[in-house]
Amino acid sequence: MRNVSYMDSQIKLVNFIEFYPDSEKFVTLVYLLAGSVRLTLNGKQSELHAGRVVVINKGDQARFWHEEKNMAVVLEIACDYFFQQYRDFYSTKFTLPDEECSNYARVMIEQMRVKLASMAIASIRTGQNGHVLEMSRCLSEIMLTLVRYFNSPRKECAPFSVRYSKRIEQVIAWMTDNYRRPISLTEAADRAFVSFSYLSRLFIKEVGINFSDYLRQLRFQHCLHEIATGNDTISRIALQQGFTNVRQLTLLCKRHYGKTPVQIRRDYKTGVAALPSAQTAHVPPAKGNRFGPVDLVDAFPLLTAGTNPQCRDTLAPYMHNEEQRVIVPARGKGHAPKEPLAYIVTIGGLEEVLKDSIQRQLRSVKEQIGAYYLDCYDSIFSRPVPDIYALPPKTFHTVCYSETERALAYLNTMDIPLVVRIGQDVTLAVLDGFLRYCVNAFSREWLQRWRFIVYPAACAKPQDDAEHFRHISQLINRWLGAAKLGVFLSLPDEITDFSAYLTHRHDSLKQADFIGYCANANLPNERRLASHYVFTQSEMHISRVTEALSRELRTLGLLTPLCLVEWNTLTGSSYRTNGSFFRGALIFNTLMTLPAQVCAVNVWLNLESQRWALQDIPSEIGSLALFHVFNIPRPVFHAIRLRERLKGEVLTCGSNYLVTMTDFGYQLVLSNTITFDPQLTAEEDLFSCFKKQITLKVMNFQPGLYRIKRWQFDQQHGALFWQLEQTSTCYWWDDEIVETINRNTVPTLSVVDEHIAQEWVTVNKLDINALMFYELYRVY
């Protein structure tokens, strides 16, 4: 066993025979480099293999043992030191998941392997300049990783609250901030508003030593660091760290190490000895611990491999370079690559249709995506329409051309049907007058393609909602006949509450032609995202909500189509994360995996309309919008466009690819879909570790010559915010800037001719949430 101490930690290279971590004094991390080890942790037994990292928390009962040769890095961090750096330490535990965990957790565990290996290497190179700084940096990053990514509340925190009550925590924090000046137990008692004797007894009871000894140990700990790393005289260090004279420091050094401070500094800087910990130097090895010999010749290659990015895949299950073989069957699966899906495009108010910019966007959506419905967030009934009841038929054509009529006339010309929201404030008389006006002004065929959706009052009784819905349905059928009428459900945040909620509204639901609902991963979790919310429950939020809703409807005997009125993937809650977290493949796959029961999805037309309409909801976490300012398309626009481009029959598919056969040849979609907490998007290491290079080998394409188109859609090929960063300015955008951004915010197209025999090989470098879309045109 090789053991090196630094400050309040010990790093060891060990060969386990039997080891009992001292969990009362240390948090212990074990990184197994080679071989296997058995672990009993709090009564549960498991076997660890090379590459595994485990953490033993304070109070855990653990035993490592194995008779066969193994090698591991063991890092012990003093609990008191951890508490000084992290005030919630005694109410927190750290849990490292196993291999079956989310992508970001796997990457952060891999980063921890690298830091543990780097710290072990620095401990071996004690004679080299900077090794102390390297160990300090690694220790800080390991502790930060544990606190930031793997902490959770300690449920059984009673023993620790007994040892460190709130009052003692405050006293220790005050001592840590003021140890350099003369402080006393009397001053501490006055600040804590208790008596001298009471605080003295409480401190000894909880901490285990008296106030003066703890203060002396705290000062000594900082003196050791200055002795090793600083150049001040020993007497100056002693006075700066709170000792009244250098003699006190010298006595402590001799008591712990048998050396004077000058000897400790000389031995440490010449590499003769490493600096022991002030709190652990006098602690004898735990009884029963047995270790085999460790050969540094064997250890060093394993450690250096752990710090080499090219070799990390040998230490972790996560791989940056992948090779996939796809065998295309002779016959397809007999179904289309996507379910038919209608799109509902939302604007703020109907009068916006009269703006030139809105009309350009509407035309662009129709040309590049296809037919869709238009939805107005503000009530369409708040706009005045001619009173048909008060007009004789002969004078109807002379009515003033209102904004409502002009907007509807434009939509009629463009053949864009409406989705009409019927809120709780819309009376039957108002609805009747509006429908009568529309029937007299526009073609019935266009009107019958409209969709109406009722938004019930939040406080209304279910039986009143059902009766109101029935009257609206009768009124619409009288005027339009075939027009569809749906109802919007304000689903509870918790899926477990769906059953009771839907049962109470069964009478309304069985009358509806479709059901609208919301599945936005951000809105119910916005507050939790701002803290340490574990995002894994939001990873598949849309599919979880949709499947739960479908399941509960089936139990009620309903197979009603669903309309996803409001939705979004997890984005975070700031402009920074929303801009840097590219989600092209994530949005594409979300649309591709919607159940067949979902017949329509809603998107906003542009960000400006959304911000004006949803002033209480940040646009970064609201529903998705197709356009940014100045008619610049956002990634969701291209994700939908690529989805609608898919044709033919599915031949084969996997978790990250889809192959279809079309009348012109083949289509192939390849993605690197990554879902992680967007609050982490500032972590550059995390970004680089998620990038992949996938070598795809496709077998059994029909041999021949093909013209191959490839669209690359990722952060630097079609992402809006990356382009905005390249043209960053605090002032206005002129036409040239807008045109450049607009031209560059599209997926990059490349074309090549290639003769395919038995195997087609393509190498793809995929960034986070990147999408590769191939079309192979057969040349005859």
From TrEMBL:
Protein origin, superkingdom: Bacteria
> What is the designated name of this protein?
AraC family transcriptional regulator
Q: What keywords sit in the KW lines?
A: DNA-binding, Transcription, Transcription regulation
Instruction: Name all HTH araC/xylS-type domain ranges.
Output: 169-267
Enumerate the GO terms in the molecular function aspect: DNA-binding transcription factor activity; sequence-specific DNA binding
Q: Do you know which PANTHER family this protein is assigned to? A: ARAC-FAMILY TRANSCRIPTIONAL REGULATOR, HTH-TYPE TRANSCRIPTIONAL REGULATOR EXSA
Q: Which InterPro entries match?
A: GH, Homeodomain-like_sf, HTH_AraC, RmlC_Cupin_sf
